[in-house]
């Protein structure tokens, strides 16, 4: 058993990291360029294909430019890896690895499919099935701020330093909103194991799409009798989703919040002094973080690998409630499709929304999202507790308490505003 | 100029949320994407686009038909309808050329030639296309209407030597140009 477990884990690590995520990183750079081009009425890279003429064929194969990431990689490796004389070498060399590694490590708790049974052993389609899933991701993913800050500091040059400091402040600020916004979700599930969260969602409806539960879908009467709480929870979960997604944008330094990188203010950003493959590693880390972010959002809010709409139990389960043998593959496909769709959403937002000013970014994080997420916790708690404490207590104590909380948040925010204005004049 | 104080517009509460504006933006970009993928990007037809967006795919599609008359491409020497080479190797273009791309070796026209009274014609005439900046000063300065900037723009070569247009090549590119002032003809 143990031996089998080790083999299975090794296969999962190798397959998931090297055959799925790394190509996904490469191709999300390609997708970024193609999608942005299409959004802006351009073409994007469509030339790089298989250079068949080099081998004596008549025509090159263009393949819609799908070989572009490979060409970029080769370019990165062949370029001169220049280390300026004024940098702090050890940190300068460590920084790119510090940015890229945490993103890949945090992938290990994301369930990418339902359990598959091979030779009588049940294999869970997650590399590390641990009971602290989201916490692990927050803990590891926030380490990537070290990479960026170290890159800025080790470059020993003023603009990269600004970039590093900005990134540091931004990531720490949004970590709070990120952590608080996910609490309602954890309150509802009562556990932190991402595999269990997804399994629950497959049976009881996604958090953002409560169109079915264990008692059936929209057409069943039993569903309507039991789905009130699901629908009520849609409000706090919607707020959670919004705050969480926006914070992920900020955490991954993506467009509306890409303050650490800026050509006009910072001559590039924290990676100004980097070249060739070290620079490419920063890039890879950024895109890997984006993939982890998308996968996490899909896992928590959009039902992970489940097909949804009650299709999982109807199509892929045997009458005893076990998964059919091909269910795992279909689930992996569903998870990949959802994640890719979310990555494209990331790209779409990046090429639509103009970037924030730094003070707006900080205000959004500390004044808006912090309060909103905090209020959201109370709201979700009340909805979850309502069936236990009874209708009377809910209306008598719960809702007034909620209103008082909301007013308190609002006035704290306002007071902050007024004091600042007074200081300026 | 009087100072105009611009008041910040007062935003409604839903405008303060910024979300409707962001949603509007997302819809606009999505519309562009769909139009682009359907080959109906705005202005695509006028710009003779390749079908995706408004971009033309260069080597396969070319802009030649739409080039304006005044386009400044490769400079070349011309002969007139009497097959006379018009350059008299006065070297004005050589002197005016800002990047010093032109090198002329003046030569004499033999006395038995029907155009012997012109006296001079270039023995060698090289334009280094690596140096040429397509400014058109040579055309402007030429008193003999002998050098013109053509509409060709795709000058390529694999060595520096290949990029130097010699006299034969220049006449080949320039060809025969009609309707010039033939000041060396006999007055009738």
- Largest sheet geometry of chain B: 3 strands, antiparallel
- Class from secondary-structure proportions of chain B: alpha+beta
Low-confidence spans of chain B: none
Radius of gyration of chain B: 27 Å
End-to-end distance of chain A, in Å? 72 Å
The dominant shape of chain B is elongated
CATH architecture of the largest domain in chain B: 2-Layer Sandwich
Overall tally of domains of chain B: 2
Q: What is the count of β-strands of chain A?
A: 6
Strand content of chain A: under 5%
Number of H/I helices of chain A = 16
The protein's oligomeric status is heterodimer
| Percentage of residues assigned to helices of chain A | 55-70%
Content-based structural category of chain A = mainly alpha
Main sheet strand line-up of chain B = 2-3-5
How many DSSP helices of chain B? 5
Strand content of chain B: 5-15%
What does this structure look like?
- The complex is a heterodimer of chains A (425) and B (188).
- Chain A has 425 residues and is mostly helical.
- Chain A contains 16 helices and 6 strands.
- In chain A, strand 3 and strand 4 form a beta hairpin.
- In chain A, helix 1 packs parallel to helix 14, helix 6 (158-181) packs antiparallel against helix 10 (228-251) and helix 12 (276-301) packs across helix 14 (327-350).
- Chain B has helices at residues 13-16, 19-37, 92-96, 137-141, 167-174; strands at residues 75-77, 102-108, 120-128, 147-149, 164-165.
- Chain B is elongated.
- The termini of chain B are far apart.
- In chain B, 22% of the residues lie in helices and 13% in strands.
- In chain B, the strands form 2 sheets. A 3-stranded antiparallel β-sheet of chain B has the order 2-3-5. In chain B, strands 1-4 form a two-stranded antiparallel sheet.
- Chain A binds chain B through residues 35, 37-43, 46, 348-349, 351-353, and chain B through 22, 25-26, 28-30, 32-33, 35-37, 41-44, 50, 52-55, 57.
């Amino acid at each position: 058993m143990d031996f089998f477990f080790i083999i299975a884990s090794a296969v999962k690590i190798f397959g998931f990291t090297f055959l799925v995520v790394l190509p996904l990183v490469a191709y999300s750079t390609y997708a970024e360029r193609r999608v942005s081009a299409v959004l802006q009425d351009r073409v994007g890279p469509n030339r790089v294909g298989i250079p068949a003429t080099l081998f004596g064929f008549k025509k090159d194969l263009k393949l819609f430019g799908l070989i572009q990431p490979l060409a970029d990689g080769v370019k990165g490796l062949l370029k001169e890896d220049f280390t300026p004389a004024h940098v702090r070498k050890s940190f300068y060399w460590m920084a790119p690895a510090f940015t890229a590694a945490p993103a890949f490590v945090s992938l290990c708790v994301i369930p990418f499919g339902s359990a598959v049974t091979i030779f009588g052993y049940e294999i869970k389609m997650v590399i590390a099935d641990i009971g602290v899933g989201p916490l692990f991701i927050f803990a590891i993913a926030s380490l990537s701020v070290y990479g960026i800050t170290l890159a800025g500091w080790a470059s020993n040059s003023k603009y990269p330093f600004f970039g590093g400091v900005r990134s540091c402040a931004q990531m720490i600020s949004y970590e709070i909103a990120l952590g608080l916004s996910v609490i309602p979700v954890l309150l509802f599930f009562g556990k932190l194991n991402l595999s269990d969260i997804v399994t629950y969602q497959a049976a009881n409806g996604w958090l953002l799409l409560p169109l079915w539960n264990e008692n059936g879908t929209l057409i069943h009467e039993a569903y309507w009798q039991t789905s009130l709480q699901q629908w009520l929870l849609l409000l706090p979960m919607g707020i959670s989703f919004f705050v969480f997604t926006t914070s992920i944008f900020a955490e991954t330094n993506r467009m509306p919040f890409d303050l650490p990188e800026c050509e006009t203010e910072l001559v590039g950003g924290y990676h100004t002094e980097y070249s060739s493959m070290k620079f490419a590693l920063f890039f890879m880390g950024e895109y890997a973080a984006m993939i982890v972010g998308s996968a996490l959002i899909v896992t928590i809010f959009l039902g992970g690998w489940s097909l949804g709409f009650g299709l999982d139990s109807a199509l892929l389960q045997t009458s005893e409630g076990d998964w059919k043998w091909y269910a795992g593959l279909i689930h992996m496909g569903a998870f990949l499709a959802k994640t890719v769709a979310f990555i494209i959403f990331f790209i779409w937002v990046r090429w639509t929304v103009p970037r924030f000013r730094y003070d707006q970014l900080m205000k959004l994080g500390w004044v808006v999202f912090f309060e909103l997420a905090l209020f959201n916790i109370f709201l979700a708690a009340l909805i979850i507790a309502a069936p236990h404490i009874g209708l009377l207590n809910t209306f008598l104590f719960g809702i007034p308490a909620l209103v008082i909380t909301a007013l308190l948040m609002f006035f704290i925010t306002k007071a902050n505003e007024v004091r600042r204005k007074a200081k300026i004049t | 100029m009087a100072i105009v104080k611009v008041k910040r517009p007062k935003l409604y509460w839903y405008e303060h949320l910024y979300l409707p504006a962001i949603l509007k933006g997302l819809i606009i970009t999505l519309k562009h994407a769909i139009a682009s993928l359907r080959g109906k990007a705005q202005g695509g037809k006028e710009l003779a686009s390749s079908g995706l967006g408004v971009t033309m795919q260069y080597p396969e599609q070319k802009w030649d038909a739409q080039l304006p008359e005044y386009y400044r491409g490769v400079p070349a020497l011309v002969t007139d309808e009497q097959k006379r080479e018009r350059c008299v190797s006065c070297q004005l273009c050589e002197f005016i050329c800002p990047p010093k791309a032109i090198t002329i070796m003046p030569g004499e026209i033999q006395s038995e030639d029907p155009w012997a009274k012109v006296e001079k014609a270039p023995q060698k005439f090289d334009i280094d296309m690596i140096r040429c900046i397509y400014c058109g000063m040579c055309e402007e300065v030429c008193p003999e209407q002998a050098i013109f900037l053509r509409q060709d723009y795709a000058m390529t070569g694999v060595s520096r030597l290949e990029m130097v247009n010699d006299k034969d090549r220049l006449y080949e590119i320039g060809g025969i140009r009609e309707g010039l002032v033939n000041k060396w003809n006999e007055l009738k």
